[in-house]
Input
Amino acid sequence: MDSQFGLMNVWSQGDFVTKAVAVLLVGMSLASWIVILIKALDVIKYKRHANNSQDFWHSEDFATALDKLGKDPSNPFRALALEGREAAAHHRNTKVHLHDALDVSDWITRALRNGIDEFTARLQTGLAVLASVGSTAPFIGLFGTVWGIYHALMSISSVGQATIDKVAGPIGEALIMTALGLAVAIPAVLGYNALVRGNKFVLTKLNSFAHDLHAYFVTGARVQSSSDAPTVVPLKKG
Output
């Protein structure tokens, strides 16, 4: 209850700057939580797609394998498989463009890399918000504290004496701004770190999937590494 009354007093007794700092911190907190929730749901979905991507290779032909990836257009593994198929078909059927200077391996590598880069950019959308909030919220809260203490000291100087009852209230209300800044920054930092780890897992799986796709479209088989020696897993083109 004390913190609630403190926040109410900060709002009721604070000037324009104090209220602006409080509103800014609350807005930053809302923005960071929205980003955390949306991106966390995306990471969970992409992890599910990553875990299901191995089913792609347990198929007799490419069409069946593609169906096993589902119909979700946001599935990066499905999108990458389609990119590779289109790149292979384009290189095979077109003979009059400048890309003929590249062999099929380089052409497919370029197409798959472009697909991964586009997905990486989409995956990292919003992380800059969390990084900005995590790095600036404590200092914004500290600014509110310094501003509140300054006005508290000015009020004390006008009275002429600094008793506990005159100092405790204003100083305590000013320190609430520091606590509010930390309360905004800590979830943003923790959310950023968790999302970066999740994104790294998804990108690792996607790069491995792209490597297998490259081997498949160039050689007609997937090269699968094992502890003894690499094995070739054939998959009919379709």
